[in-house]
Amino acid sequence: MAYELAKRTEDAERRLSTTDGLPSRNGALLTARLQQRYADRITGSFTLPGREGRYAPIPADVPAALAAALKARGIEQLYSHQAEAWDATQRGEHVAIVTPTASGKSLCYTLPVVSAAMQGKAKALYLFPTKALAQDQVAELLELNRAGDLGVKAFTFDGDTPGDARQAIRLHGDIVVSNPDMLHQAILP
Hints:
mainly alpha, Rossmann fold, 2 domains, two-stranded antiparallel sheet, 9 helices, globular
C-alpha cells in the first residue's frame, strides 16, 4: 500500500530495485515500515501507469543562442511540460512543476532564467538541499553556457567557496547556486 509513497522519494528509489514490477526485499521492508509508521495517515493509494513522454518543438521565442546551445547538447525538442513552462513564464505567470524524477524539471526553470540573464534582465539564486546536487546543477549550467557561448556567469556559493571570492560572486554572478545553510550564514547577513 505504501509502496507507491516510498517510490516517490529519491532516497527510496535508490533502495527499491524492482524485478517484474515487484519490490525487492529491501523495498518490501521499506514498504512495511512505511505502512506501519503512517498507517493512520494513509487513506488510499493507487499507481499511475507509466506513459511515453510527449514532446514539443523548442519554442520560437527562445533566444537563438540558447536554442543552439540546447541542440549542441543533444536537445532537439522539449518535453511538453518544459515548453508549457517556458510559455507560461514568458507570459509572466508563476509555474509549479510536478513530474517524476529525471523528467526534465530543471530545464523548466533553467530556460527562462538563462534567457533573462543573457539579456541582463535578471539574476537568480538557486537553492538545493545538498552541495552535490548544487554542484551538479552548476556543471549543467556551465556546459549549456559553453555549448552556446551564452555569457551567463554561474557559480557555486557554499562552504567551500573561498572568502575572497564570495563578494565577487554576489556582485557578478548571474546565477548563484547555494544551499539554505549558506543563505542563512553568508548570503543574507
